[in-house]
Amino acid sequence: xxxxxxxxxxxxxxxxxxxxxxxxxxPDSPVLRKPDxxxxxxxxxxVWAETRDIVRENKLVTVCEEASCPxxxxxxxxxxxxxxILGDTCTRACAFCNVKTGIPGAVDPEEPERVANAVAKMGxxxxxxxxxxxxxxxxxxxxxxxxxxxxxxxxxxxxTIEVLTPDFLRKDGALEIVAEARPDVFNHNLETVPSLYLxxxxxxxxxxxxxxxxxxxxxxxxxxxxxxxxVGLGESRNEVLQVMDDLRAADxxxxxxxxxxxxxxxxxxxxxxVTPEAFRSYETIAYAKGFHLVxxxxxxxxxxxxxxDFARLKAARAARH
Length: 321
Ligand code: SF4
Prior knowledge:
Layout: H1 46-57, E1 61-62, H2 63-66, H3 72-77, E2 82-85, H4 111-122, E3 126-131, H5 142-155, E4 160-164, H6 174-180, E5 185-187, H7 197-200, H8 206-219, E6 224-231, H9 237-249, E7 254-259, H10 276-288, E8 293-296, H11 306-320
Parallel strand pairs: 2-3, 3-4, 4-5, 5-6, 6-7, 7-8
Antiparallel strand pairs: 1-2
The structure holds iron/sulfur cluster.
Iron/sulfur cluster binds next to α2 and α3.
C-alpha cells in the first residue's frame, strides 16, 4: 500500500476554495488500492528539504506538488523539480488532472527571473518548465515561456532546457514564439488515446496535439520532441499502439508511458493497473516503431529522470547519424 504525501501547504482562508469546482457535482469514484509494484520513496530527506526551501524562497510553483506526483520524494531528493509557470490555476478542467482550475491571475513579469535564480541555485544540468493552460491569454502564455527560456539561458548557459507546453489550441503563432527561443526539448503530452479525449481531455483535440508536435520539429529540425501518455484510463492496447504510430508519423523522438493514478474520488477512475510486464511490452514495441528513446513503467512521468534521459536521447540520435 502506498501513501502519497501531499506536500502542498495551502493557507486557509482566502485560498480555501475547492481546487476543482467543476468536479464538485461529479459522482464519487472509489480510489482503488494500489498494487505492490507502485512503490514510492517518502519525501523528507535533507536534500528534499533543501529543494523545497529553494522553491518556496523563490515563490515558485512546481508541477511536482500541484499534480501530486508520486515521485516527489525521489526527484526532490536529487534536486530535480519541474517548474510550473504562469500561475497555479488552469483554464481547462481535464478529468485526470489535480492542478487547480478556475480563473487565473495576472501573469507575473518577475517569474522568469525567479525561475532562473532557482535553476542557478540548484545547479541544474537540465530543467523542465511546464505551465497551466492559459486559454485566457492571447498567446496562450507562449511569450512568457520564451521569457523564461531566455532568463535561464542568461543565468545558466550550460543548462539544457525542456519545455512541456499546453496545446496552444486556437493561438496562432504561439508555437513559433516558443520555438524561436530555442528550447532543447519540446514536450507536449497527448495524455491518452483519441477515443477518450471527450471524457478525459475535453478541451483538447487529438490531431491538433499531434500536429503541434510535428510542427515543432518542422520549425527546428534540431530540436528533440517528446510526448507522453497515461495508461489505465480505459484505453485498449491497440489504441496505445495506434498512438505510437501517430507520434512516429509526426517524427516524435521520445515517448513516455506511465500509470494513471486517480488524485481524488471526483477524478476519472483508474480502470486498470497495467502490469510491469505490459509496460515492458509497450517499451519494446515503441522502440521497434522507431522512437529514439522510450520510458514506459508504472511510475514514469514525463519529467521523471528528464536530465539523464536527455543525455541518452542525444546519444541515441548521434548513434543513428
Ligand atoms: S516526476 Fe516530474 S513532476 Fe514528478 S516529482 Fe519528478 S520532476 Fe516533479
